[in-house]
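Quick review question:
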């Protein structure tokens, strides 16, 4: 598992975790920092909407926050391996995942979109029949493709950046990402366009080891953040709807 961890300095909030005997340990938060604006690396530190969200949750719990950056496919296993206390990384609470992990209430709902090269358009209505479609390994997008587009070749990749590079190189015909990612990639790559695919019903939630006592505490914090407007202010800060 440790081989999946990316070697950069972790972000640490020193609120009651300065190494004193009996101090509350920091909250270990797993993420995959290659998904702007939700989480990405800037000047050697993780930043983004879910990084701010994780810090806010840790502050409300009276704890510091350590962010563990790893490949997306390693995030959920890291919880049951005891490496992390929770994970905030655009994770959807599917029925299959709920068998082995616990989840908070949803804090963000997103639409799925298809990225394609302008000169090589794709039609999602055809369920990508005969096409090679990339997505992030272990993501909701991979689940959607396998359940709803059986006639295409699903190509899971470690990151969306890798998937988009494969699209630009002509190795795949399309990439399925969420709406925020689609907008970001199209802004940076003028040869790309996107089209609506589907709306996420479940949304993104914080994941925990099965039956973690943190779930109820974090749900109360998320509810309070929604009521007092802090959650919406974080979304606006990072350009999210």
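Suggested answer, residue by residue:
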């Amino acid at each position: 598992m440790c081989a999946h961890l990316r070697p950069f300095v972790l972000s640490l909030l020193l609120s009651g975790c300065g190494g004193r005997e009996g101090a509350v340990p920091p909250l270990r938060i797993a993420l995959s920092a290659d998904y702007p604006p939700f989480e990405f690396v800037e000047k050697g530190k993780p930043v983004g909407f879910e990084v701010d969200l994780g810090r806010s949750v840790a502050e409300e719990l009276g704890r510091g926050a350590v962010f563990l950056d790893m490949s997306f496919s390693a995030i959920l296993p890291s919880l049951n391996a005891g490496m992390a206390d929770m994970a905030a990384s655009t994770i959807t609470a599917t029925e299959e995942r709920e068998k082995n992990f616990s989840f908070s209430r949803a804090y963000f709902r997103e639409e799925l979109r298809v990225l394609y090269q302008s000169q090589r358009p794709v039609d999602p209505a055809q369920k990508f029949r005969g096409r090679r479609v990339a997505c992030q390994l272990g993501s909701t997008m991979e689940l959607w493709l396998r359940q709803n587009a059986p006639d295409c070749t699903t190509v899971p990749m470690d990151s969306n950046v890798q998937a988009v590079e494969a699209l630009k190189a002509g190795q795949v015909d399309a990439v399925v990402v969420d709406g925020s990612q689609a907008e970001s990639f199209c802004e940076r790559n003028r040869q790309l366009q996107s089209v609506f695919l589907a709306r996420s019903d479940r949304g993104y939630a914080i994941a925990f080891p099965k039956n973690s006592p943190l779930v109820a505490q974090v749900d109360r914090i998320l509810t309070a953040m929604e009521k007092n407007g802090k959650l919406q202010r974080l979304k606006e800060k990072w350009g999210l709807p």
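Why it works: The longest helix spans residues 214-227. The CA atoms of residues 26 and 64 lie 4 Å apart.
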